[in-house]
Amino acid sequence: DGGITQSPKYLFRKEGQNVTLSCEQNLNHDAMYWYRQDPGQGLRLIYYSQIVNDFQKGDIAEGYSVSREKKESFPLTVTSAQKNPTAFYLCASSIDRPDTGELFFGEGSRLTVL
Amino acid sequence: AQSVAQPEDQVNVAEGNPLTVKCTYSVSGNPYLFWYVQYPNRGLQFLLKYITGDNLVKGSYGFEAEFNKSQTSFHLKKPSALVSDSALYFCAVRDTWNNRLAFGKGNQVVVIP
To answer: Does the pLDDT value for residue B73 go beyond 70?
Structure first.
């Protein structure tokens, strides 16, 4: 079945360590997104990519990095520069057209910094 | 910038009663509006969208939403709530300049048996 796969589902990290969250989609979507979810704050956009080898910063990109070397993959690295990385991270993809373009989400990755 | 507001943090409703989750929007140009639902520790699931056409939009799981241009609202409704409808509901608007979706902060819906 087509969909978005995020891994790992749960991740624990010590302060000062970088971690990479995986996001893979087989929907043939051009656009991919990373959101961060904190209780009571909704979803905040970290990075998005509308095409391979190109990506843009979202509203809270500081302390994060991404790459888009393949259409199917959009990994997110949470670096040690991110001051408060404990959160639920959601990857999404969409057809890159403004008149349609609902997002399809993965099941999320919960990162806890110890 | 496009934005949506969900004024209530939590909505409590008895099972079998009508459910309404409120959303107002602020856009320049035509609004593209969406509703999503999230169950605990899961990703978001698409419920419905308004792009153009009829003001009453029907979606998944018996939900519908009414687009009201004069009130800049896009409230989500269900005629008869189920306990399984208890979840977090997000309203979102697409920014037609950069295709990004801006989400509201979410509404927790609790359906009481």
So the answer is: yes
